[in-house]
Amino acid sequence: MATITAQQAKEAAKLAKSDGKIYLAKCLQWNPSDYDVEINMRGAIHLDYLYDSLEFAATKGFPWRQVCAVLELAEEFINKTVQNGVDINQAIAIYKLIVPNYLDRIAEKNLKIYTDYVFSTFMSHYKLYLYVFTRPREPQVSECNLEVDIPPEVLSLKEGKPERIWEYEQKMTALEEEETTRLDVLKAQRESLLEEQVTVEEAVLEKVEDKSALLQQEDLTQLIQAIAEEQVSHTEKILQIKLEERNEDLDYYLQKTSMPRPPELGPPPRTKDPPRYSAKSKPPTRGTGSKTGMSAKSMKSGKASVIR
Question: Measured between alpha carbons, how far is 20 from 101 in angstroms, rounded to an integer?
Fold first, then answer.
């Protein structure tokens, strides 16, 4: 039974028809699928019929308690007629039977006004109502999955950066990641060669220990030559990798320093000292060179005097 309070009827009548129907359905505790026209056309027509009856009574100025009673009368009438598949003559007879039950809740004058409304609307299209409520209809609903990309979280203005600074930082970060990856690969190769060198040396020592008799000079020479060749080969590879590490280090350093830096960031921080000469390969300065030359000369003269 469609039972609502006077306050609920007043709220439903104030709203637009689309919103009022949704509000009325909630008051009647209907689920959204019960009146979705795509899924349940009968429920949608049923809700339209009930809301139209409520709206008519409210528009004609019925008291709100009588508006609620009109809604109950409309619900009882549709349930006993088209819902049960009775013909129009039986529907008229049913209406005559149930109307007297509402005389104590709806004024006789208002009941006559509503009766004229029912016969000029619902009963005029009764066969159409009957057809819809008695003929099953297959729902024709197409469903598809739609992916929606929500916008990213917007940072506060304090964390915002000009585009040129952001681009500079992205390029610098990518370059540093590339440098780290490349140097890690070279380091792994160098460590692998060192481990391989130790393995080769241990293998040579095992060969020497396996010799039960004294080695001949020719065999000893060949053994020493083999060990020396292995040692030189591995040392050459290790030095080559170290040289490649130094070159890669210099190359990435030059790329970082040559990258245009936005003026807003100020001078670049010294994260790494520029490449320097080692202590052995560093060329002497003038003062140092003269002093070193004098000391060397004095050492030579002193050595000569001792020989004499």
Answer: 28
Q: Which helix (H) or strand (E) holds 300?
A: helix 286-307
CA dist 108 to 103, 115, 192, Å?
6, 10, 104
The whole-angstrom separation of Cα 297 and Cα 227 is 42
Which residues, 6 or more positions from 217, have their beta carbon under 8 angstroms from its beta carbon? Answer: none
User: How high does pLDDT run on average in the chain?
Assistant: 79
Interior/surface letters 240-262, b for 16+ CB within 10 angstroms, e for the rest: ebeeebeeebeebbeebeeeeee
User: In angstroms, rounded to a whole number, what is the distance separating the alpha carbons of residues 191 and 238?
Assistant: 9
Q: How far apart are CA 274 and CA 227, in angstroms?
A: 39
Amino acid 176 reads E
Q: Look up the pTM and report it.
A: 0.47
Task: State how far the Cα of 133 lies from the Cα of 102, in Å rounded to an integer.
Answer: 26
Helix axes 163-210, 217-258, angle to 10 degrees: 170
Average confidence (pLDDT) over 276-280:
45
Rounded to whole angstroms, what are the CA distances from 48 to 37, 75, 116, 146, 287?
Answer: 11, 11, 18, 31, 106
Which own/partner contact pairs does 83-91 have at CB distance under 8 Å and 24+ positions apart?
83/133, 85/130, 85/133, 85/134, 87/130, 88/123, 88/126, 88/127, 88/130, 91/123, 91/126
Q: What is the pLDDT of residue 305?
A: 36
Q: Note whether 25 and 100 are within 8 A (CB).
A: no
Average pLDDT over residues 5-20: 91
Write the DSSP string, 271-297: -SPPP---TTTSPPPHHHHHHHHHHHH
pLDDT beyond 80 at 269 = no
Contact 121, 52 (CB under 8 A): yes
- Dist CA 250 CA 238 (whole Å): 18
Q: What is the DSSP letter of 150?
A: P
